[in-house]
Structure prediction request, 434 residues.
Amino acid sequence: MRLHVVSFGCQMSVADGEELASPLKDRGFTAVAEPDAANAIVLNTCTVRQHAEDKALSLIGRLREWKDKDPERVLIVAGCAAERLGPWIQKRFPYVDLVVGAKSIEDYPRIVEEALGARFDALAETRQGFDGQGAGAGPRTGWASPCSAFVTIMRGCNYSCSYCIVPAVRGRELYRPLDTVLAEARAKVALGAKEITLLGQTVNSWHAADGQRQVFFPELLMRMGGIDGLERLRFESPHPHYVTDDMIAAMVGTPAVCGQLHLPIQSGSDRLLKIMRRSYDSAEILDKTARLRRAMPHVEVSTDIIVGFPSETEEDFERTLDLVRRLRPSWSYTFKYSPREGTESAKMADDVPDAAKEERLQRLNALCDELTEEALSARVGRVVEVLDEQGGFGRTGDGFKISWPETGPAGRVVKVRVIGTGRRVLKGESDERT
Ligand code: 5AD
Ligand code: SF4
Prediction:
């Protein structure tokens, strides 16, 4: 039995895709890269912007033919768009076997069990059994990279950014207990992970009880840093509000923590940040990043930015460009505002014409690309430490992708001399002799 998993959207969605695969793997399925070779497809959808949702819906449409070829095949549609549109998806695409929304992921192994019954259970002896702590609590192989694993530490979001549909489709914040997180991380390291990325919608708001005490995210970083064999620790996506001096101190004091912080700013206009309900202003972003850079001089910052939010003027947009110039992110993810039904901002007029959104996006991208290029070029000539994820391809600690001609086995941290740049990547040669 063969399984094909497709995940649209963020790293959370990719990690969820791995969890969604696991009850099927427990039934004896093995992963395949091609849908045509698969008996089952898990399609993990995203709804954060209309474009992401449309991509998933169009793929469901195209999979009708795949399903028609063999009605025994199983098509599972999961994730954020499934949460938002569940009954509509079931009606519009009746050949979908199972629609499971993002809020049900903890319950998903039971749902699959009930829906599939004895189907595909010929290999039941390989079933490992569900450990009762939520999907993903146990070690699972089949990660995106053999030496880099995700550990989801919280789900949902308690913020209410006016443009964002995530709180509606993922619900309130739920934190996984400290022991569960540490146990999963240790198990993944024992299975070969050298790098762990802690995941959550606002990952650094995580907290949990440890006996009578509350443990907060900075302490979690330090506890994770104590895991033997864990060489690299990353986390996605932090909320600026919880980037505190304690968190910065924990990053500095935990050698495994990579010198990289993703800090979504969304806009540089304080007027818009208020309407977006982001709970910070541009001065706070600059202050926090200045503290971080003082404490961790080699850190690289990346960000998310939305252009064309309702009522955005040319002046608001110039403020965004200003903030980007001062923040100097080495990497940026930029988006045109997309109204999402049910969010607060969807009630405001989407009054920035698409041509203006497009023009601002292009100007912003030109600036962001320039900053990325500068950061890449500054590394030429340096020797960097890279976790070799695929034999000649990996990432530097500060988050740059790099490729080099290499024959050694993947999974080691190796020294690579940067000899040039490509589009958004570094090119290197092995420097292992020195
Ligand atoms: N329109 C455009 N971009 C959005 N994002 C979230 N919601 C929207 C929206 N409605 C972006 C934000 C967020 C990233 C994951 O997606 O920049 O940080
Ligand atoms: Fe959405 Fe804001 Fe929550 Fe991020 S913090 S998931 S942008 S509501």
Residues 219 and 280 are 24 Å apart (CA to CA). The domain at 383-430 is CATH 2.40.50.140 (OB fold (Dihydrolipoamide Acetyltransferase, E2P)).
